[in-house]
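Task 17 of the worksheet. Students: predict the tertiary structure of the chain below and write it out as structure tokens. Keep your answer in the requested format; marks are given for formatting as well as content.
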Amino acid sequence: MEETRPGEYFPVYEDKKGTYIFNSKDLCMTEHLPSLIEAGISAFKIEGRMKSSYYVATVVKAYRHLIDSYFSKPKEYFCDEKWLDEIKKVSHRYFTTGFYFTKPGGEEQRYDSSAYIKTYDFAGLILDYNTDNQIATIEQKNRIFVGEEIEIFGPDDDFFTQKIEKMWDEEGEEIEVAPHAKQIIRIKMAKPVKPWYMIRKFNKT
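Model answer:
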């Protein structure tokens, strides 16, 4: 029962998995940016509290590109699906438009699980890049193996994909895996990168 509404009860149902009264789907408005901008909205709040830097960087980048695309050619704007696909590469729940267009019913909650969809892992943060030998110094965020395919992205460019052919530890010794959290490693990059670019890899589990 709500404190300020005595006598009005909110039913809470529980099954063997638990109860999900705060298990909302994630708000995603990428497909409706023209409507929001034309309604007079001038700033968008991207969820950041209790989220990783990887989440914030990915989602902000997608919205930034879509908003810039709208303002460059408003009449020709369309929501490029690749940016929605980018958002799906961070840990998320199914999407909803929340209260924007109608009063939510029962479809904005997920009642069968509190789990998130996680198709990619944040694998590393680029600290430095040597333009002479094309080797990047990286702080590991999740285990990385030689032979794995990784994606690299930053704020300026689209992502690119490459396979890890060789990898070295901080002492210059060649290694097959970087298993330790925040381990400093070096990888030769297929394209130039910059400090603070991020590395992700497909989550096979």
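Marker's comment: DSSP finds three helices and eleven strands in the chain. The first helix runs from residue 33 to 38.
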